[in-house]
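Hi there,

I know you've been waiting on this one. I reran it after we fixed the sequence typo, so this is the corrected version. Both the input and the resulting structure follow.
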Amino acid sequence: YMMNTGNYSGLMRLANLYTTGTKEQKEALMAQAQRLGLKGSQIEINQILNRIGKKQVGIKGGIKEIARRVVTGQVLGLLEDTKLDRALINFYGITDDFGKLGTWMSEKAAEDKIWKQRSPSEKQTLRDEFINSTIARNTFKRKTEYEAIIDALEAKKRFENTVKDDELVEKLDDALRSEIAAQKALDVVPVYSRIPKILEKLRGIPIIGNFSAFPAENLRNKYQLFKIAGDEIRTGFETGNTALVQRGSKRLLSQAGYAAAPATMAYFYNQMEGTSEAADAIREGLMDYQKDHAIAVRKDKNGKFYYTDLSYSNTDAAVLDIIT
């Protein structure tokens, strides 16, 4: 998701912080991420555990129970309270947080550039909206600090701001940009606690229930990605903010490149193997939703053809099948 949303730079930013950052910087990042809802909450972890059957009470195992787990996709629930079980949960939490934090750091760097090109009136409007939010109150918990920032904003409006006022406003601006970046990050990466409850109820249905949650969240992410990109490009042109236009364009180009990668690999593979015509012939016999997939074909020494569908290496395959 960091790659196909144009946030791949977040990998380096996060890695750089962990290798060169101080303990205080890392703790500050984690605290801010927790406050902004970027770290996996207990609600989300419970939702994941519920999907794999680990939140049910009275599981004793047995042949019948194992069979039920297999057909409903809840096999991991049988590992409850084992070392592997705890290791898998921890691993999920680490990888999920890594993706969210990296995406957020990339979004924050982009927002910093965009902010520099915003007009004074735009900045003031965003400040006025943010200062009364719960996030702002949670960020500046000390009442004296919060009230001092409000006073600094009023002084800035009257053009009577001091150096101290400017420092307080800049502190508010940084928190504001972090919040905008966090909202965008949560819109383009999977957040399974946001999945509608009706889809969670489907998980008990064999086969169908196993594959309802991920495509649903993937569809939300794709919708939000295109919506955000469109809004950024349109607003950027309207306000003359080139950083905003570039950000929206980067999202679309990254998504297009990611979606085209399997097809590109299949094309060059078939060209090198001399199996392009065989790939076209095989494609004709596939299901309708597979006809436009990235089919890579190889030929063994006996002249028999085998194909691999590379489209499923794309995490967006389910959504692309719906669209095409």
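Quick highlight: Residues 51-60 have pLDDT under 50 and may be disordered.

Best,
R. S.
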